[in-house]
């Protein structure tokens, strides 16, 4: 499979550019590299020409009337990249001369690669374009609930990606630390409930502290998060997922809602409830969205099974999603059982954005 | 100034695509949105058409012969983005039908913005495309030595960018901590030399520990890093840069090389030398490159002024630049005075890549 590279370069000028003289000055450079132009009518929106050359090369030149020149260059991966670099450099050099140095900014962006076997682009929760150093797909399955990928990154180790969202990498002990209280809690002899947590990071960390019992509830097993992580995220989970039961832990493979309801009915409580199910929804219509409804249900049940002196830990979302975070805080204030809460902003290495974590307790 | 948005979408298929039927199926969607096509001859490299519409809209459709369909859509910032979203969605929906669901991957990337007042694209040291959440330029100066920018990010606070490289943000206490020994050192009563460090982060942190004297050498003052940081990076430097001299510190505004040479001549030593001048060069030709020569000179002089039981701290570079890091380690082994060293990988929030820090000592 040949993938396509797309280089792009933009030049911002201090004044409107005279298209005619700029374009004629650049034309010879395109021709030298055997690119043939088609000039398009833009109905008064500046100059636009497309150039087609050998090996499937395509360039798009736009001289926008307000002083912006953009060049897009597409080629195949196996093309002569040095030659295309030369083309961009020659265009840049010529533009500097043509515009008499009246240039505010010249920017050449790294190529975007499309159609590659491995997808390196995983935007942040706040919608920014991010290229990861991912070099191979380690695991991929579609469970009944979600698409599960484990991707290898040179710097972050294996990264768990659920339905296209970066979930946890082997580098991300900071996540586990944040969602378990930053090392300030004492789990020895305590009853702990983990909702989700299929990557095993929280469980592996907390068993070291000799709790009385950790109950973890993860929805699926075969072809699931647990399945992938116990093979390929061992820097995160160690050997804790090899057995569903140990001295001080048990993993239930089931939906947590009926289990939580049963615990409520039995009057069972936990010293710590750690909700590692999902980030809070980005949608800002909590009254209509079923994800918000699910979140409220889990939250309400979790607080009901929380011991009066217990703590509830959960992730929030990107620190930039202030509206979604504030809606979540509204939910916290509407619970049948009143809670207090605090939050902190944490840097989880593979997220490439600051992340908010919450602690809640019964008032 | 109108900036240009460029959306792109790619569809990877499980088998070669029949251009003719695919293209004819998509044409009506482009026509509905009043885009007029020009079909180009690609000399056997698949189908290529450019579409020009109202408001300066341009779309490029390529059906590559090996099973990749790419669509690039350019528009102006003030255009009707919802309408263009509809166009992309309609194309995606139609392609799913035309290709009978034989699709490996559909990817729509966030738009790249060109020509905006604030540049949000600052690639990592290992050359990956990264979009920051930068919303305004706080400070910009060209000193005699470099271009200095301070840019505001919602999540990282103000970010110092030197010659286009992200240097330090107000969120990056992890950097200061790593380059001062991760809180494991005791600076009380010690002699400390800081080379560079103009953002004041290291100085502000170490004065708290009551050292005997911190000598900091920064090359320029007016229109410089110090100047910008003391105004706009106060979460990093506090008020420490307001005065060049305090109870236990002094800042010299001069080139550190003659000063280091003078200290060598006088036989003066320091318990800690912290080199915060620059990351190690990415160039992998250390014998030819003047940056490497500068690095070796500073390293050699620094080790000479290091007390026999002292420690030398410095940053390396991106953890992914293994070749450059290994060349740096070669330099460490070639010094006139033999040194031991260790390194660690640290997550500095605003870097969006893992960073290597070194500690060296006299053998």
TrEMBL record, chains A, B:
**Pfam families reported for this sequence:** Spermine_synt_N, Spermine_synth, SpmSyn_N
Leader sequence residues: 1-20
- Ranges for the PABS domain? 120-362
Its UniProt entry gives the catalysed reaction(s) as:
S-adenosyl 3-(methylsulfanyl)propylamine + spermidine = spermine + S-methyl-5'-thioadenosine + H(+)
The cross-references to InterPro entries, in alphabetical order and at most eight, read: PABS, PABS_CS, SAM-dependent_MTases_sf, Spermidine_synt_N, Spermidine_synt_N_sf, Spermine_synthase_animal, SpmSyn_N
Broad class of enzyme this protein falls into: transferase
| Residues of the active site | 276 (proton acceptor)
Question: What are the protein's GO molecular function terms?
Answer: spermine synthase activity
* Gene Ontology biological-process annotations: spermine biosynthetic process
Which UniProt keywords are given for this protein, alphabetically ordered?
Answer: Acetylation, Phosphoprotein, Polyamine biosynthesis, Signal, Transferase
Which pathway does the database say it acts in? Amine and polyamine biosynthesis; spermine biosynthesis; spermine from spermidine: step 1/1
Q: What is its EC number?
A: 2.5.1.22
Could you tell me which SUPFAM superfamilies the record lists for this protein? S-adenosyl-L-methionine-dependent methyltransferases (SSF53335)
Subunit composition?
A: Homodimer. Dimerization is mediated through the N-terminal domain and seems to be required for activity as deletion of the N-terminal domain causes complete loss of activity.
The Swiss-Prot or TrEMBL record describes its family as follows: Belongs to the spermidine/spermine synthase family.
Protein name per Swiss-Prot or TrEMBL:
Spermine synthase
UniProt source species = Amphiprion ocellaris (Clown anemonefish)
**Lineage, opening ranks:** Eukaryota, Metazoa, Chordata, Craniata, Vertebrata
